[in-house]
Design brief:
21% of the residues lie in helices and 37% in strands. The chain contains two helices and eight strands.
């Protein structure tokens, strides 16, 4: 009887240990979204102001005008020019619009300005009235 209790305790301990693993929940992609990285002159004034206020530090925010969703992503102060932002994915899930970007630094062969820069991108896509999730 004592052996059975010990075996049951071991089984329960193994079950709790294996169930305790943290699983990162990923929502399934419904579809890729068409988007445009918009030029500075086409950025709505309210977004330009927020970027100017936030540019020293990394930032991520979105703005809807009722028709389009604008997503602004900045990587804060960089030591030189020559940085760019690559938009890797923009897609819809059940609950979110998901945005994945990457900061691309200058290569060793690039000629860059030796002054501080504040790389950012503003993405324009359809407004699905869902929160934005930044990957």
């Amino acid at each position: 009887m004592k052996k059975i209790v010990i075996i049951l305790c071991i089984i329960i301990a193994v079950m709790f240990t294996s169930c305790n693993k943290t699983k990162q929940y990923e929502e399934d992609k419904i579809r890729d979204l068409e988007f445009t990285v918009i030029d500075e002159q086409d950025i709505p004034e309210i977004i330009k102001q927020k970027i100017e206020e936030s540019k020293m530090e990394p930032f991520k925010f979105s703005y809807s005008d009722g028709q389009y969703l604008y997503v602004a992503i900045g990587y804060g102060e960089q030591p030189t020019g020559g940085y760019s932002i690559q938009v890797q994915e923009v897609y819809e899930t059940d609950k979110h619009v998901v945005i994945l970007t990457e900061l691309i630094g200058p290569s060793k062969d690039d000629t860059v300005t030796m002054s501080l820069s504040y790389p950012y991108a503003v993405i324009k896509t359809e407004d699905l009235e869902k929160p934005v999730y930044y990957k």
